[in-house]
Amino acid sequence: xxxxxAVRKSLYEWITFRGRSSRAExxxxxxxxxxxxxPLIGIVAFAVYxxxxxxxxxxxxxxxxxxxxxxxxxxxxLVIASVSVTIRRLHDRNLSGWWYAAFVAISAVxxxxxxxxxxxxxxGYFELGLAGLVLGGYLIGLILMVLPSTNGTNRFGxxxxxxxxxxxxx
Length: 170
Known about the structure:
Layout: H1 3-12, H2 23-51, H3 59-92, H4 98-116, H5 121-146
Helix pairs in contact: 1-2, 2-3, 4-5
């Protein structure tokens, strides 16, 4: 699958959480995601920085505010597409997408404990354990995304690398 074909397919199926995605589709989309995120995050950061200075609400202020809103909406679109292609990639490995939800939940708990629980005594070890769990989850996720897919059809659909040829029935 080509770079543009993979990105186009991922963006077209941005809210499709069923089916399977090949390794090429996953990695090409995430490369595009990183490249697109850099300027979008810059635009949002500039808009927040500029507007937090107490501007007078002139024309430039409205342009910056509009650009910030458009950039945030594009980032939301890309994040949803990223979750979708990641879940489909897990399906390609014959794993449920709920594994991704479990990882996000563990990451959220770890983030909350860093902010709200003191890092002394038992709680310090608890935070360290959660951080290790999250790091281990990242490594396992990376390994799962690099490994080849299950061959042939699995419970999530046909192999994306070998589409079914229906010309036999034509």
